[in-house]
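Q: what sequence does this backbone want?
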């Protein structure tokens, strides 16, 4: 079984920034724009853990996938909520999957995001009792029972023949 924790528990404690040894007269360095890491770098990490300074849930491909899915606003808010229970991101045959649930509901309100490793295709599952739905390309596609997948085996079943190209 994958270990679960709240997103807040998965975050590393903040450390103070190192003081600069540069003289005050030195010109400030231009900010370095760093490309977001490959999505596969997040496998085994929690959705709010950072890789090269970018959390999975904040990765540009993941943000785009969530916004373009067509999932309701409450689903998007839940996926971004750091006070939920989450498990490490796992890989299925076709996707990387992040999943979590609202502990205040005992898991009856839950979600997952499946995204292809290249970030080109994504589908969001959102369940708010009694039934869940998949959302892809701006629309609700089909119902999911009994809940959104939260492990690799059930995700492989839920994502059977996905993505369809």
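A:
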């Amino acid at each position: 079984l994958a270990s679960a924790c709240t997103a807040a528990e998965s975050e590393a404690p903040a450390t103070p920034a190192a003081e600069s040894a540069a003289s005050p007269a030195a010109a400030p360095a231009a900010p370095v724009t760093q490309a977001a890491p490959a999505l596969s770098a997040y496998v085994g990490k929690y959705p709010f853990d950072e890789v090269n300074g970018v959390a999975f849930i904040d990765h540009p491909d993941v943000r785009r996938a969530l916004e373009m899915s067509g999932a309701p606003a409450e689903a998007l808010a839940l996926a971004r909520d750091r006070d939920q229970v989450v498990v490490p991101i796992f890989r299925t045959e076709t996707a990387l999957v992040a999943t979590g649930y609202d502990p205040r509901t005992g898991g009856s309100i839950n979600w997952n995001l499946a995204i292809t490793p290249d970030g080109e295709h994504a589908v969001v599952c959102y369940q708010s009792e009694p039934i869940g739905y998949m959302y892809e390309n701006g629309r609700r596609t089909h119902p999911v029972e009994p809940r959104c997948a939260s492990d690799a085996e059930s995700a492989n079943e839920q994502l059977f023949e996905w993505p369809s190209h």
